[in-house]
Fold:
Amino acid sequence: MYHLIDRIYEAAFVPDTWPIALDDLAMSGSVGGALLVASEAHPPRFAALASIANALRKFSSGDAWRNNDRPMRWRPSLDGFLRDIRSDER
Structure:
């Protein structure tokens, strides 16, 4: 557990290490992991595993992020980690 916490703190100061920390955080069976920072005024910034980085690049370079309702659905639980699964995966 402390190894993971150390990786997260390291990544906060050395952004190039986020993929390592995200890989450590990835849940069993997950396609990838990402840290996404968004605001209403600017496109999202992110760090992601290679498996989903292209999808996030595409998402943040267009206008899709402006019409995304997921952050509003997540807002009540923003004090921890979030996961997003398709309804057919539940």
About this structure: The first helix runs from residue 2 to 13.
